[in-house]
Each structure stands twice: as structure tokens, then as C-alpha cells.
Specification:
The protein is mainly beta and about 110 residues long. It has a single domain, classed as Jelly Rolls. About 5% of the residues lie in helices and about 50% in strands. The chain has one helix and nine strands. The protein has a five-stranded antiparallel beta sheet with strand order 1-2-9-4-7, with no helix packed on it. Strands 3-8-5-6 form a four-stranded antiparallel beta sheet, with no helix packed on it. β5 and β6 form a beta hairpin. The protein is globular and about 35 Å long.
Length: about 110
């Protein structure tokens, strides 16, 4: 299945947009679209790994005690049980490809 990522991106003025792209029994694939100032609060998944890949823009991603600026072409892995979140502290839009394994129950 071909997915045109940029065509699927939909930004929202009031909150981060989470766009479901695909799911299998082993992985879930989303796009996160954040306007400047938007964030995904820091949270934890006890039994899921999450991978953030920055497609466009720049933002701060927290994984455990680490809080780093990532830009297009960068990725970070949040292992199960480790707190993680993202915020767009730049003046431009932030677009992330996000993989979760295993998929969340609601996927």
C-alpha cells in the first residue's frame, strides 16, 4: 500500500493532529502534525515502543530524562515504559512519522 505522507498531513489550529495511516497486528503508523506551540504531553506506554521520525520542521522530543531538538531527517526511539512526548517550540510546522509496536488496542 503506497501512502503519500505529505498529502495525508492535516494541521489543526486548536491541537496536534494525529492521522492514522496504517496498522497491522504488529505495528501502527501515524502522522503527527503540530502547528507552532502545540504539543503531545509527556506520557508512558507500558508495553509499546514508539519511534518518532521528523519529516518536516523542528521540535523538541522528550524521551526519559533526555530532551532534544530534532529536525527533518532525525529520529528517536522511546522504549516501552519510558516517558516520552513532543512539542513544537519552533516558528514553523512540525510533521512526524510515528510508529508504535505493538499497536495500541484502539488502532
Amino acid at each position: 500500500m503506497k501512502i503519500r505522507l505529505r498529502e495525508r498531513a492535516k494541521f489543526q489550529a486548536d491541537r496536534m493532529a494525529r492521522i492514522a495511516l496504517a496498522a497491522t497486528p504488529r505495528v501502527h503508523l501515524d502522522l503527527y502534525a503540530l502547528e507552532p506551540g502545540q504539543a503531545q504531553k509527556v506520557h508512558t506506554h507500558d508495553d509499546q515502543d514508539k519511534v518518532y521520525v521528523v519529516l518536516e520542521g523542528r521540535g523538541r522530543i522528550t524521551v526519559g530524562a533526555e530532551d532534544e531538538t530534532l529536525e527533518a531527517g532525525d529520529a528517536v526511539v522511546a522504549p516501552a515504559g519510558v516517558a516520552h512526548g513532543v512539542r513544537n517550540d519552533s516558528g514553523e510546522r512540525l510533521l512526524l512519522l510515528v510508529l508504535v509496536s505493538p499497536p495500541p488496542p484502539h488502532a
